[in-house]
């Protein structure tokens, strides 16, 4: 640490909302040249704290200091002017505009008469991009960039001011493992330039890889700050949730049933080629690979959202063609999609109606919907899956991510599917609920369902799967049993072929 | 990357390709079906086409900016009629009686001012209430049209000033007055979209409003400017048109908003905002005018023309959607 004066310091921050003490006497600081992790479950107060730093909320009590000068932050622009900049989890870019226009959005250089000084704009942007060592230039259209590169544009935007503290909010949520490494390089560059970095993430392995200190919040209260090298995942998790988290391997010990789903030499254009695998009742088949390796596209094909260009799909030994999701549901193939809020749920509807959505046609009493049957079905799966909601009337949009995911799973289970495909089962779900979802997936397999889990998180895929199909560039490179697989050979499988390609 | 650029070229060039196809089609079909002996691509005919494109075209240029900004304006037809009435009626006011032809510029300025004010009123309501522009301008479309009927009932407002008519019918370097106005508007607004802070911010707001707000762009004032501009342009369109015709029917300008939006969409502007170009809109305007004129040339009546344009609009949007879907697929790989 170059300098011990904190770049940014919060002291005794209190923020209350009607009925809730969202932040209760929280203190926090980041010194220049360090990466300081801020951790906590969803609802622990991280986002409220960030909104205080972003000038969106004014704290009831407490003070904020930048380089020991007391400041009041009144708006996002004001925070940025003071040198506190955010890299948000959700990208906030205008895709039809150039990189340069996005980087200097709202601050386009002028040359009088309201005209844009394009030369200056491009040269300033290129200078920043050079610092980030990216492979595109200021004139590129943002819409043409990969997600990872779009994130670099966000970071470039942060560097247009003399940043004292840069806050990364779940920056790796949509990045592949290779892209993460590039991001970590950028973070370490920033660190060397003496910027203080606040890093918010649920992902332990990242936290331990790149941070210097960890501060944990729970229920709006400050739980403590520890040096990363003096602690381990288990104790941090304990600070966060007050109990231990089980992430051990978990192969099935029960008898496997017959083959529920078999895929032979399936191809879909250049999205994936010659994919073959089978899933038996009672087992979990994991799919692991980089984003874009073709995993989600296979799931979409099985669910009738895409049509394969060649190959065959067999359900219970019979060859089938899945022309539409309706057909897939009839065949007993269910998909819990990656984008839970966008594709899995009708957020404005209540819990019961979401759960019974695909089978509403069958739940009738005469010409009317059988409300009673719907409620009892919902109650049954609420108990079975331990969905925590005040009642079936609760609007799904108001539930936590974990409970939302359980509703989606319950929706399909209530139809007794042959195969349950779960794409990114715990994306955006906090640590405590994560392990519940994992446990649920294991239980489903144990009770005889054939389950396919697609995940970008290696600990998750190792934890829940009996076998793991490693994908690279549209092909299954190798299928591991849980005895064979190690982190090393899995990583090699999904990226080792890269050198050849 | 290369194919991405090719695709963009195809997309921006498509409307011009369509125009060429129309020209060829009507020239050939005209040989057999035409009611007149004159060739379709006759120079006078083409010059007339440009002139006739001007009223819709001038408004369409403003609508492009409005739609790029993520809004829509349905009240342009009503503003067009009001500006026409202001133009013709003020010229007969007793207070201007001894000005002679000097009243012409006064009437012009008044008409343009009224148009800009009505547009600005839309903009202020959209800005301050946060109500969707579609709803606000749907209301003002009805309201402004009501004003038109309140003024003179069902009767037309007429005032033929021959100096004005001479000016409107003049040709400079072969192009009609209306064409010159249209060209100037295209040039100026194209410059605004390409080179000014306001223009670029309008794109950013339409593309990703949250991002723009977070970057400190004040969305409201930009929308106000654009609504004022389109009000002004709707009035300019009326000024150009009624200088020549000298009579406003209270139903004039009805459905203009839909013709204008059709031209803008044909020209490649996205309904959702953030993307579109003035040059594309110019293409859209010319394509529609060619189609109307060409179908008339080979003897089709108005109802057939509307049917064909409706079909073409849907086909174009379908093709556009296919192109975009393909583009996304390619990105995933």
The tally of domains of chain A stands at 2
Largest sheet of chain A: 6 strands, mixed
Q: Looking at the chains present, what oligomeric state does this protein adopt?
A: heterodimer
Q: What would you call the shape of chain B?
A: globular
Question: What's the total helix number of chain B?
Answer: 13
Number of strands of chain A: 22
Low-confidence stretches of chain A: 496-501
Beta strands of chain B, count: 4
Q: Spans of chain B of 5+ residues with little confidence (pLDDT < 50)? A: 326-333
Q: Radius of gyration of chain A over alpha carbons? A: 25 Å
Report the end-to-end length of chain B measured between terminal Cα atoms.
13 Å
Order of strands, main sheet of chain B, comes to 1-4
Structural class of chain B: mainly alpha
State the helicity of chain B in percent bands: over 70%
Reported for the largest beta sheet of chain B, the result is:
2 strands, antiparallel
What percentage of amino acids of chain A are in beta strands?
Answer: 25-35%
Describe the structure.
The complex is a heterodimer of chains A (501) and B (333). Chain A has 501 residues and is α/β, with parallel strands linked by helices. Chain A has helices spanning 46-53, 76-81, 99-103, 118-132, 147-158, 177-192, 204-210, 233-241, 295-302, 325-330, 340-344, 351-356, 371-385, 401-413, 431-446, 458-464, 487-495, and strands spanning 8-17, 20-30, 35-39, 61-66, 69-71, 84-87, 165-169, 196-200, 213-218, 221-227, 259-268, 272-280, 284-289, 310-315, 318-320, 333-336, 364-365, 368-369, 419-423, 450-455, 467-472, 475-481. In chain A, strand 19 (419-423), helix 15 (431-446) and strand 20 form a beta-alpha-beta unit. In chain A, helix 13 packs across helix 14 (401-413) and helix 14 runs parallel beside helix 15 (431-446). Chain A starts with 7 loop residues before the first strand and ends in a 6-residue tail after the last helix. A two-stranded antiparallel sheet of chain B has the order 1-4. The A-B interface holds A 76-77, 92-97, 101-102, 105-108, 110, 113-116, 118, 144, 269-271, 292, 297 and B 1, 4, 195-198, 200-201, 203-204, 207-208, 210-212, 214-217, 274-275, 329, 332-333.
């Amino acid at each position: 640490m170059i300098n011990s004066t904190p770049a940014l310091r919060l002291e005794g921050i209190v923020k209350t909302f009607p009925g809730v003490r969202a932040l209760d006497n929280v203190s926090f600081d980041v010194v220049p040249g360090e990466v300081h992790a801020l951790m906590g479950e969803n609802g622990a107060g991280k986002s409220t704290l960030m909104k205080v730093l972003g000038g969106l909320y004014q704290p009831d009590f407490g003070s904020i200091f930048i380089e020991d000068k007391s400041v009041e932050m009144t708006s996002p622009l004001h925070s940025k002017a003071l040198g506190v900049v955010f890299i948000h989890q959700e990208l906030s870019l205008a895709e039809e505009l150039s990189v340069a226009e996005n980087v200097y959005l709202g601050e386009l250089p002028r040359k009088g008469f309201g005209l844009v000084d394009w030369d200056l704009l491009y040269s300033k942007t290129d200078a920043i991009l050079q610092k980030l060592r990216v492979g595109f230039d200021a004139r590129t259209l943002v819409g043409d960039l990969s997600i990872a590169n779009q994130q670099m544009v966000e970071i470039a935007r942060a560097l247009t001011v003399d940043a004292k503290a840069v806050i990364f909010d779940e920056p790796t949520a949509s990045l592949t493992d290779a892209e993460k490494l590039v991001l970590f390089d950028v973070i370490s560059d920033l660190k060397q330039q003496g910027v203080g970095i606040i890093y918010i993430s649920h992902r332990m392995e990242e936290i331990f890889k790149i941070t210097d200190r960890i501060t944990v919040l729970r229920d709006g209260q400050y739980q403590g700050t520890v040096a990363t090298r003096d602690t381990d995942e288990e104790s941090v998790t304990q600070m966060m949730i007050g109990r231990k988290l089980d992430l051990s391997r978990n192969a099935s010990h029960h008898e496997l049933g017959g083959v529920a789903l078999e895929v032979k030499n399936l191809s879909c254009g250049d999205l994936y080629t010659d994919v073959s695998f089978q899933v038996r009742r009672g087992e979990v088949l994991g799919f692991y690979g980089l984003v874009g390796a073709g995993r989600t596209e296979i799931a979409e094909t099985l669910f009738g959202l895409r049509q394969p260009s060649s190959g065959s799909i067999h359900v219970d030994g019979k060859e089938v063609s899945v022309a539409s999701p309706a057909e897939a549901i009839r065949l007993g193939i269910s998909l819990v999609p990656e984008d839970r809020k966008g594709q899995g749920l009708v957020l404005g509807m209540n819990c019961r109606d979401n759960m019974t959505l695909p089978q509403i046609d069958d739940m009738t009493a005469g010409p009317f919907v059988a409300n009673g049957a719907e409620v009892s079905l919902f109650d049954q799966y609420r108990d079975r899956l331990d969905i925590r909601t005040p009642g079936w009337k609760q609007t799904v949009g108001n539930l936590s991510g974990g409970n939302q995911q359980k509703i989606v799973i319950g929706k399909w289970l209530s139809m007794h599917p042959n195969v349950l495909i779960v794409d990114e089962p715990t994306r955006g779900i906090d640590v405590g609920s994560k392990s519940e979802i994992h446990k649920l997936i294991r239980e489903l397999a144990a009770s005889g369902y054939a389950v396919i889990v697609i995940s970008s998180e290696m600990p998750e895929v190792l934890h829940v799967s009996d076998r793991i199909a490693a994908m690279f560039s549209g092909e299954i490179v190798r299928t591991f049993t849980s005895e064979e697989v190690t982190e090393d050979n899995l990583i090699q499988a999904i990226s080792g072929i890269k050198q050849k390609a | 990357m290369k194919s991405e650029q090719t695709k963009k070229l195809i997309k921006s060039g498509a409307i011009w390709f369509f125009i060429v196809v129309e020209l060829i089609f009507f020239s050939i079909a005209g040989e057999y079906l035409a009611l007149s002996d004159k060739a379709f691509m006759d120079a006078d005919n083409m010059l007339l086409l440009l002139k006739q494109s001007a009223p819709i075209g001038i408004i369409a240029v403003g609508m492009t900016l409005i739609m790029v900004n993520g809004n829509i304006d349905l009240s342009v037809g009503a503003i067009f009629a009001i500006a026409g009435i202001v133009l013709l009626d003020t010229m007969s006011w007793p207070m201007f009686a001894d000005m002679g032809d000097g009243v012409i510029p006064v009437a012009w300025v008044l008409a343009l001012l009224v148009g800009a004010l009505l547009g600005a009123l839309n903009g202020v309501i959209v800005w301050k209430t946060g109500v969707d522009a579609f709803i606000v301008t749907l209301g003002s479309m009805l309201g402004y049209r009501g004003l038109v009927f309140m003024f003179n009932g069902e009767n037309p407002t007429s005032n033929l000033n021959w100096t004005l008519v001479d000016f409107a019918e003049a040709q400079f370097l072969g192009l009609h007055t209306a064409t010159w106005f249209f060209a100037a508007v295209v040039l100026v607004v194209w410059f605004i979209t390409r080179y000014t802070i306001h223009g670029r911010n309008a794109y950013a707001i339409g593309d990703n409003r949250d991002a723009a707000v977070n970057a400190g762009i004040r969305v409201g004032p930009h929308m106000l400017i654009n609504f004022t501009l389109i009000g002004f342009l709707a009035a300019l369109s009326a000024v150009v048109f009624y200088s020549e015709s000298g009579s406003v029917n209270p139903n004039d300008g009805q459905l203009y908003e839909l013709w204008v939006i059709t031209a803008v969409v044909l020209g490649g502007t996205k309904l959702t905002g953030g993307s579109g170009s003035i040059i594309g809109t110019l293409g859209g305007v010319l394509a529609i005018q060619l189609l109307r004129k060409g179908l008339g040339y080979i003897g089709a009546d108005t109802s057939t023309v509307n049917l064909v344009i409706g079909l073409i609009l849907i086909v174009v949007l379908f093709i556009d959607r296919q192109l975009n879907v393909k583009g996304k697929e390619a990105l995933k790989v």
